TrEMBL record:
Component of the SKI complex which consists of SKIC2, SKIC3 and SKIC8. Interacts with HBS1L isoform 2. Keywords: ATP-binding, Cytoplasm, Helicase, Hydrolase, Nucleotide-binding, Nucleus, Phosphoprotein, RNA-binding. The gene is SKIV2L. InterPro entries: Beta-barrel_MTR4, DEAD/DEAH_box_helicase_dom, Helicase_ATP-bd, Helicase_C-like, MTR4-like_stalk, P-loop_NTPase, RNA-DNA_Helicase, SKI2-like. It is an enzyme of class 3 (hydrolase). It comes from Camelus ferus (Wild bactrian camel). This is Superkiller complex protein 2. The keyword Nucleus applies. Residues 585-755 form the Helicase C-terminal domain. Its EC number is 3.6.4.13. Residues 319-475 form the Helicase ATP-binding domain.
Length: 1246
């Protein structure tokens, strides 16, 4: 090997180094510059790369990848750098947005710049947690869909959004703080503090300037006039001089520092204010749908969406208004085609590149609409409690509760929203969930247009008027005249193959009621009952019959319908158990062909293939499969969701011939049939058995008749027992549907969500509810009347109350109080049993109403209606001089003296005496006398009625009438101050405290009135009339102010009680500010107080995820039941803990005045499925859960699904409060619940 020879190079010369020295300026500073030299390699691409040296490897290992650092002994690998002190960096801060701008002021004609003015910018420094404006920047992308409980909602439409001027101006209701007199002197926990009492003389500190002396010579009025005035003289708000000594008047304080700045004198001409449009009083506009729309395609040459059929007139009218961006309320008959309006709105939003939200009352309807709209438009998303599909789509389908949550949480989806479609609006009558619809309608921003779809309701205009006033926009009401497919209603009395033809027409397609058909059904039923009595004795068959009789009825009915080609049929039965019984009793029927059986079999295989093996062998799945192969189906809440969807899809294909369903099948599900059958016309509504309401009957009967397939729809009512009464049938079939009624109620979630936003008030939400609409719709009229009364009051002359008239105001108030006290006592008498007994025929009473003033009357007849009893009374009156009421002249105002106030001063006719018969209410009876007359009421009423006819008008009254009138006149003349009356305590035995105290107060007032001095003055009558007129105007003004104020709200007392509950539990402070517990409660979907208390008590943190899920099932379970004795000890203790917390909350509610008792509040919890949920969370198959509880499978699935939603709410709340352990357990619990058949994907979303 050759040895490498080492070359020794000479040391380099300093001039040969690649460095250059450069002098910087004249300061003597030098800088070395590196001069790149020639490459040291002769290779064309330089030297090849070499391995990194030790320094590079260390930097890469320890500095670039800190994950490689050891967990222990970090001090050997750490390096500290000496910190450089830079205190000036602490003064650096991020620049705030500019709050103002300069605006040029120009001449309105020439455009010449006259000056500049600084204006405040309204949209600076806004964020989702501080502002309700749509101009605020969007929140984080992760929160754009659902929002966040800490974010503010957008400003509700119809409410005036406050401007900068409004926010800077102090509200009238705000308490003014005096910083000189109202400051606290002793801090909390201290024994003594600072004395702020002014001293006699306080010498200013040397060298300090008084701020008041500096500001004193400044003219804060903004003008440069009156410069010659004294500098130290204070000025008024308009710049005028106020004469006041400097010592007596304190220095006027400014409300803010900005007010202390000198104001520039503006020389620009103020532009004219734009005239405000007059408010539209007719907010609900009915649209004529009887005449055709001939110019439809001329007005819309390129519609956003087209159908294969020609739209109806009402659909065209709705489309025309949608093109104008109007809000519409479509109240149409069932199956009339309301969905066409929704489809056009979706297409219009896609054309405008905006978004549409379609809301439905139930999740099943949301899934169906998702499938239908996705097949039509494609870009459709679905948001339900457990499903989130395509949330970025232009059309989102969701339940109303989810939309409410998005509105309260300030979701950025609302920004791009153009339409909100409310389907099945009549669901607002639901007592539990109807409030959600009102909340959503109130909270929607102004840029969102509203589409309301509903069945026909009688008060559609009233409801639309409420929404129009709420949003300050016109709502166009479009209603259909008749059903597209008319209905025929029948009674069926058959029960065997021999009687299957007993079908009697009761109501034809033109709406005519056939009494002949009714009596024919009655006769057929009677004939069969008589034959039954001859064969089996006089014992009558039961009203409903047993299973065997029901089976005979349905076999004969279905044979008749099959012969007449009136299948498919929907049979409505108002019991889940009886639906299953009737379907199971007809397994001998086979209504499908072999090809239909094959199609059903293949469809079932495809749908059930997504289930695990044991779930496919569930008894309900096997039983339903057998029924479906025979053309039978069952649909109610106890059926598994996937089976209900299978039944719906097969029914829509015409493969299910007979469907037994509860009334939930008629809620919005577009599944028309040829025939609808009612098993009964009575149902149990949760409290009692009652007849079907007309709206319920119309909703279910509307499923009969398929548009385009059937000329008429058939509705059949089974008469298993006796035929119902004709009046009941007439009312149910031809009565008006139920009106839309407000179900608005206060919830803790609503209160907390509004309290956390300073600009929104709960009182405003209550004012704008549908329940307050009747009293609030006349607000403008009340304001106008109040202004007019104010002017009248200012124009009135002040009464002279000097001398003897000094007690005139007290005299007037005593008289008013005496009248009110007597009225209170009289109301108590009329409400008592003894008081009503005394008001029998012949009793003499004192009548005081609008037509009569302290006139004697005798009762002739008393109505039997206990709720609003009417007393027909013969009353004395003055004989009119003229027949024209306008020519009689006004009655002269009377001045009450003590005898008039203390006594009754009965009416005495000045001229000829006359009489009349009046129908009096309880409030028209001023007093019940001790006198009783013997009268013949029937003859008096008969004679009076005869003389009211023009032919007998001049006939003299009969003897009974004359005798009664003369006796009443004699009593009035004998007792001018009124005859003796029945004492409420001694005679009527009323022991009410208010009656006793009222009697004592009345006697005291009578003594005060008798001792008044003002009645002795000759000026008393004139001055009393002046005072009474003034007091009456003031009383009316107080009434109007009350109606316009928050005090008139019906739910205001309950609101104060619920706020007191929140304050007691620590959710809000004394000032109404929402605390941490309140913000956590806002994140809960239901049972917000109970869940928050359990979280803050750490009652759930020590439990395992499956145990937490089992306990929380008691909050969402809908079927009552006992948890049983087989629970583990941990679960038993947990149940007792939850009940104890609920009891504590209930006791707080009772202590704060709420009507709900502790037992009722605790009774809302149902722990019947605790063991079922516990075993399910532990992994038990669903097939083994059936033996643990007798609850139907569908209700078990619904409970677990709602429980998973609650676990997600608790997970978010735990993250908000900083409980990662509980949040992780909630996530695990939700994961354990979400498996197998319970959370099988909906067939409509596949």
């Amino acid at each position: 090997m050759m040895e490498t020879e080492r070359l020794v190079l000479p040391p380099p010369d300093p001039l040969d180094l690649p460095l250059r020295a450069v002098e910087l300026g004249c300061t003597g500073r030098w800088e070395l510059l590196n001069v790149p030299g020639a490459p040291e390699s002769t290779l064309p691409h330089g030297l090849p790369p070499c391995a990194p040296d030790l320094q590079q490897e260390a930097e890469q290992l320890f500095l670039s990848s800190p994950a490689w650092l050891p967990l222990h002994g970090v001090e050997h690998s750490a390096r500290k750098w000496q910190r450089k002190m830079d205190p000036w960096s602490l003064l650096a801060t991020l620049g705030a947005p500019v709050p103002s701008d300069l605006q040029a002021q120009r001449h309105p004609t020439t455009g010449q710049i006259l000056g500049y003015k600084e204006v405040l910018l309204e949209n600076t420094n806004l964020s989702a947690t501080t502002s309700l404006s749509l101009r605020r920047p969007p929140g984080p992308i992760s929160q754009s869909l659902w929002g966040n409980p800490t974010q503010y909602p957008f400003w509700p439409g119809g409410m005036d959004e406050p401007t900068i001027t409004d926010l800077s101006t102090r509200e009238e209701a705000e308490e003014e703080i005096d910083f000189e007199k109202d400051l606290l002197t002793v801090p909390p926990g201290f024994k003594k503090g600072v004395d702020f009492a002014p001293k006699d003389h306080q010498a200013p500190a040397p060298g300090l300037l008084s701020l008041s002396r500096l500001l004193e010579p400044l003219d804060l009025g903004g003008g440069d006039e009156d410069e010659s005035e004294a500098v130290g003289q204070p000025r008024g708000p308009r710049g005028d001089t106020v004469s006041a000594s400097p010592c007596s008047a304190p220095l006027a304080r400014a409300s803010s520092l900005e007010d202390l700045v000198l104001k520039e004198a503006s020389t620009a001409v103020a532009p004219p204010e734009p005239s405000k449009p007059l408010p539209q009083e007719q907010w609900a506009v009915p649209v004529d749908v009887t005449s055709p729309v001939g110019d439809f395609y001329r007005l819309i040459p390129q519609p956003a969406f087209q159908w294969a059929f020609e739209p109806d007139v009402f659909q065209k009218q709705a489309i025309l208004h949608l093109e104008r961006h109007d809000s519409v309320f479509v109240a149409a008959h069932t199956s009339a085609g309301k969905t066409v309006v929704a489809e056009y709105a979706i297409a219009l939003a896609q054309k405008h590149m905006t978004r549409t939200i379609y809301t439905s009352p139930i999740k099943a309807l949301s899934n169906q609409k998702f499938r239908d709209f996705r097949n039509t438009f494609g870009d459709v998303g679905l948001l339900t409690g457990d499903v989130q599909l395509h949330p970025e789509a232009s059309c989102l389908i969701m339940t109303t509760e989810i939309l409410r949550s998005m509105l309260y949480s300030g979701s950025d989806v609302i920004r791009d929203l153009e339409w909100v479609i409310f389907d099945e609006v009549h669901y607002i009558n639901d007592a539990e969930r109807g409030v959600v619809w009102e909340e959503v309608l109130i909270m929607l921003p102004d840029h969102v247009s509203i589409i309301l779809l509903s069945a026909t309701v009688p008060n559609a205009l009233e409801f639309a008027d409420w929404i129009g006033r709420l949003k300050r926009r016109q709502i166009y009401v479009i209603s259909t005249v008749a059903r597209p497919v008319p209905l025929e209603h029948y009674l069926f009395t058959g029960n065997s193959p021999k009687t299957q033809g007993e079908l009697f027409l009761l109501l034809d397609s033109r709406g005519a009621f056939h009494t002949k058909g009714y009596y024919a059904a009655v006769e057929a039923k009677k004939e069969r009952m008589s034959k039954h009595a001859q064969t089996f004795g006089a014992k009558q068959p039961t009203h409903q019959g047993g299973p065997a009789q029901d089976r005979g009825v349905y076999l004969s009915l279905l044979a008749s319908l099959r012969t007449r080609a009136q299948l498919p049929v929907v049979v409505f039965i108002f019991s889940r158990g009886r639906c299953d019984e009737q379907a199971s009793g007809l397994t001998s029927l086979d209504l499908t062909t072999s090809s239909e059986k094959s199609e059903i079999h293949l469809f079932l295989q495809r749908c059930l293939a997504r289930l695990r093996g044991s779930d496919r062998q569930l008894p309900q799945v096997l039983h339903m499969s057998e029924l479906l192969h025979r053309g039978l189906g069952v649909h109610h809440s106890g059926i598994l969701p996937i089976l209900k969807e299978i039944v719906e899809m097969l029914f829509s294909r015409g493969l299910v011939k007979v469907l037994f369903a509860t009334e939930t099948f008629a809620m919005g599900v577009n599944m028309p049939a040829r025939t609808v059958v009612f098993d009964s016309m009575r149902k149990h509504d949760g409290s009692t058995f009652r007849d079907l309401l007309p709206g319920e009957y119309v909703q279910m009967a509307g499923r009969a008749g398929r548009r385009g397939l059937d000329p008429t729809g058939t509705v059949i009512l089974l008469c298993k027992g006796r035929v119902p009464e004709m009046a009941d049938l007439h009312r149910m079939m031809m009565g008006k549907p139920s009106q839309l009624q407000s179900q608005f109620r206060l919830t803790y979630t609503m209160i907390l969500n509004l309290l956390r936003v300073d600009a929104l008030r709960v009182e405003d939400m209550m004012k704008r509810s549908f329940s307050e609409f009747p009293s609030r719709k006349d607000s403008k009229a009340h304001e106008q009347a109040l202004a007019e009364l104010t002017k009248r009051l200012e124009a009135l002359e002040e009464p002279d109350m000097t001398g003897q008239l000094v007690d005139l105001p007290e005299y007037y108030s005593w008289g008013e109080e005496l009248t009110e006290t007597r009225s209170l006592i009289q109301r108590r008498i009329m409400d008592s049993v003894n008081g009503l007994k005394s008001l029998s025929a012949g009793r003499v009473v004192v009548v005081k109403s609008q037509e009569h003033h302290n006139a004697l009357g005798v009762i002739l007849q008393v109505s039997s209606n206990s709720t609003s009893r009417v007393f027909t009374t013969l009353v004395l009156c003055e004989k009119p001089v003229s027949e024209d009421p306008q020519e009689r002249g006004p009655a002269s105002p009377d001045v009450p003296y003590p005898d008039d106030l203390v006594g009754f001063k009965l009416f005495l006719p000045e001229g000829p005496c006359d009489h009349t018969v009046a129908k009096l209410q309880a409030g028209d009876v001023a007093a019940i006398t001790t006198k009783v007359l013997r009268v013949n009421g029937e003859k008096i009423l008969e004679d009076f009625s005869r003389r009211q006819q023009p032919k007998f008008k001049k006939d003299p009254p009969s003897a009974p009438v004359t005798t009664a009138v003369q006796e009443l006149l004699r009593l009035a003349q004998a007792y001018p101050a009124g005859p003796s009356t029945l004492d409420p305590v001694n005679d009527l035995q009323l022991k009410d405290v208010s009656v006793v105290e009222g009697g004592l107060r009345a006697r005291k007032l009578e003594e005060l009135i008798r001792g008044a001095q003002c009645v002795h003055s000759p000026r008393f009558p004139a001055q009393y009339l002046k005072l009474r007129e003034r007091m009456q105007i003031q009383k009316e003004m107080e009434r109007l102010r009350f109606l316009l104020s928050d005090q008139s709200l019906l739910l205001l007392p309950e609101y104060h009680q619920r706020v007191e509950v929140l304050r007691t539990l620590g959710y809000v402070d004394e000032a109404g500010t929402v605390k941490l517990a309140g913000r956590v409660a806002c994140a809960m979907s239901s049972h917000e107080l109970l869940l928050t208390e359990l979280m803050f008590d750490n009652a759930l943190s020590a439990l395992r995820p499956e145990e937490i899920a089992a306990l929380l099932s008691g909050l969402v379970c809908q079927s009552p039941g006992d948890p049983g004795d087989q629970l583990p000890s941990t679960l038993k203790q947990g149940v007792e803990c939850v009940q104890a917390v609920a009891k504590r909350i209930g006791e707080v509610q009772v202590a704060c005045g709420l009507n709900q008792t502790v037992e009722e509040f605790v009774g809302e919890l149902n722990f019947g499925l605790v063991e079922v949920v516990y075993e399910w969370a532990r992994g038990m198959p669903f097939s083994e859960l059936a033996g643990l509880s007798g609850t139907p499978e569908g209700l078990v699935v619904r409970c677990i699904q709602r429980l998973a939603e609650m676990c997600r709410s608790l997970r978010g709340a735990a993250r908000l409060v900083g409980e990662p352990v509980l949040g992780a357990k909630m996530e695990t619990a939700a994961t354990l619940l979400r498996r197998d058949i319970v959370f099988a994907a909906s067939l409509y979303t596949q």
